Amino acid sequence: MTISNSISIDKVISELKLVLDKKNNILTEYEERFCYAYDATAIGEKLYLPDVVVLPENTEQVAQIMKIANKYKIPVITRGAGTNLCGGCIPLKSGIVLHTSKLNKIISIDKDNLTCVAEAGVVVEKLQQEVEKLGLFYPPDPSNLKVSTIGGSVALSSSGPRCFKYGGTKDYVLGLEVVTAKGKIINIGGNTVKNVTGYNLSQLFVGSEGTLGIVTRVTLKLIPLPESKQVLLVFFDSIDDAATAVTDIISHKITPSTLDLMDQKTMDTVEQFHPTGLPTHYDAALVIEIDGIADTIFVQAKQIEEICYKNNAKDVRIAKDKKEADEIWFARRSAFGAVARMKPNVITEDAVVPRNKIPQMVKAIRKTADKYNLNVCTMGHAGDGNLHPNFSLDLRDHEEHERLEKAIEELFDAAIELGGTLSGEHGIGMSKAKFMNKVASNEVLEYMKLIKNSFDPDDILNPGKILIK
């Protein structure tokens, strides 16, 4: 087998084996490589099989792997947990999949300076648990936090439900250790909250989806752990009323940590998957979490309850204890899994609109789904205008797949017309690259390509993602 007309994969593997001294750190068998042809994106029947999968244990090994890749001009696709939903981890041009699961150490937690250092393969929930033991808090909260990694969060600039109050991953990255396309190890940023020393390269790498370099270690900002929190579940007969309630809550100078939305189809699907007592006849529900000083939580909860009823809420449930709060969050987080039980595939999209345009965008999603005879469940982060329509379908049905492709383009057109954009937290990957010219001018796209070419002139770092050459 050859990677190109002149390069034998056996030769490349033999050199990689000199770097990765343990047998289980390099995967070459077809069965071993097969699962790395996919991430969480439903892409149909086409198979993108990597030539080899490597599992480095330290940054120096990553650097050596990149030197080999650069020598032979072999693509390298960095992969964390593979939970990407836009094809960001798929090896479009084969090559080497570099799996970060063994870069899984929390190097340090600095309680005095409110920072921590973690390797790219550390699972987000694990980091949260460890810092919370010390009374600290890492707010970014992707829905798949039990498996998603810090490196993946940086690559996608992940956010999650708490973004409205606390911001996303980009707001907590202070510094990065990065391996370049040529195998050099560089350290950018630092461990101080203030740092305006030259170009802000750390933020350039955040959200770059592994196309500019391989992040191996991250320095993150932490904050004090909130003293207390409370969860409310609010139901409305109209999605418009739910959106108006969100705006009204914010206008009253209340800043919940979470303002999440579920539509009727989502609630109905969740109830079929894991009954939690959600009333499925309402058009929409808001999952609202508030946190802060214990004495203020009760007051904020009552204020929010009053505001919601003023905006035609039909029922407001305030969690009595942690168990009830966990049940509410389980219902919200299980939405994707619930939709996945309906048909073989789920396509989860990620459009963003100004917060006050949420009703129009939800209506556009429903109208488009009806137009193309597609089943859709919509949820999202109402506090920041980020909506996630989940389409359940069977990609083996080529006609249905074609209808979906048309629907998705129309949804992005609707979001853009409402003043929004293509993604809030899932990234661009391969699936949205073809839409980039809808939101970026030719001059902006050319500037992005100049940046890509400067960092990766041979296009070996996750080729085919974000930008179409």
Quick synopsis:
The protein has 16 helices and 19 strands. With 469 residues, it is of the alpha+beta class.
Task: Supply database-style keywords.
alpha+beta; single chain; 4 domains; 469 residues; Alpha-Beta Plaits; 35% helix; five-stranded antiparallel beta sheet; Uridine Diphospho-n-acetylenolpyruvylglucosamine Reductase, domain 3; 16 helices
Could you please describe the fold and organization of this structure?
This protein is an alpha+beta fold. It has 4 domains: 9-99, Uridine Diphospho-n-acetylenolpyruvylglucosamine Reductase, domain 2 (2-Layer Sandwich), CATH 3.30.43; 106-224, Uridine Diphospho-n-acetylenolpyruvylglucosamine Reductase, domain 3, CATH 3.30.465; 228-336, Alpha-Beta Plaits, CATH 3.30.70; 339-417, Alpha-Beta Plaits. The protein has 16 helices and 19 strands. The strands form 4 sheets. Strands 12, 13, 14, 15, 16, 17, 18 and 19 form an 8-stranded antiparallel sheet that branches. It has a 5-stranded antiparallel sheet with strand order 5-6-10-8-9. Strand 8 (173-179) and strand 9 (185-189) form a beta hairpin. Helix 1 runs antiparallel to helix 3 (59-72), helix 8 (239-251) packs across helix 10 (294-310) and helix 13 runs antiparallel to helix 14. The longest helix is centred in the C-terminal third of the chain and has 20 residues, at 398-417. The two termini are 27 Å apart. The model has no long low-confidence stretch (mean pLDDT 93).
